């Protein structure tokens, strides 16, 4: 109940205010005159300061928006540059890997070629050593045969023997030389 009395009082005050403008037009004229004087005072004393403040505020806001746009563009450029740099580094890494792989294959081929050359050189050297040993052995055999032939000739000369003894001595020498 208390609330209903308050609401009733508020409604009555509002209605009195609305009807007072119609019942008492001087209040309306007074309000209009007060409004005009208020506008004049604001225009005379405060309008310049308010507009200056609003203009400065607008400039600060515009500057902040421009700064934000510059930063956004700079960030976008940096992002594009970093993406480009990443791709360039990726390509450089791929090329470096490819180059190192090719160099490794070249080194492998060189090592194989050098190993084959070394094996061929050693084989040729071994063949030369074998040929030398064979030639040396042949020389030794020839020297032995000469020595045996010389010894046989010496024995033949020492003995003056007939042809059958002479033939036996030659056969013995040949047998001795074939054994050694």
Topology readout:
Elements: H1 2-23, H2 25-158, H3 163-179
Structural class: mainly alpha
Overall 3D form: rod-shaped
Count of distinct structural domains: 1
Low-confidence sequence ranges: none
Q: How many helices in DSSP terms?
A: 3
Helical content band: over 70%
Order of helices and strands: HHH
Task: Tell me the strand percentage band.
Answer: under 5%
Report the average pLDDT across residues: 84
- Give the termini separation: 154 Å
Radius of gyration: 65 Å
The largest sheet is:
none
Structure description:
- It is a single chain.
- The chain has one domain (2-179).
- The model has no long low-confidence stretch (mean pLDDT 84).
- With 180 residues, the chain is mainly α.
- It is rod-shaped.
- The protein contains 3 helices and no strands.
Observed structural traits:
180 residues; mainly alpha
Entry summary:
With about 180 residues, the protein is mainly α. It has helices spanning about 1-25, 25-160, 165-180. The protein is rod-shaped and about 190 Å long.
